[in-house]
Amino acid sequence: MKHVMTASYLPIEGPSVWHGADMLADKRWIFNLDEEEISEINHALETIRQKKIPWQKITKEDFPLERLSKKLSEISQELEYGSGLASLRGLAVGSYDDIDLRRLWFGLGLHLGSPLYQDCNGLLMRDICDERQDTDTLFKHQLQTESGERFVSSKARTLSNQKLRFHTDRCDVVSLLCVRQAVQGGISKIASSTAVHNAILESRPDLIKHLYAPFYRSRLGEEKWGETQTYSLPIFGVHNGNFTSHYSRTYIEAAQEMESVPRMSDAQWEAIDLLHETAESLCFEMSFAPGDMQFLNNHVIYHARTAFEDDVSKGTKGRLLLRLWLSMPNSRALPEDHSVLWKNTDGGSLRGGIGQAE
Question: Best exposed site among 8, 156, 303, 342 by fewest CB in 10 Å?
Answer without folding.
Answer: 8
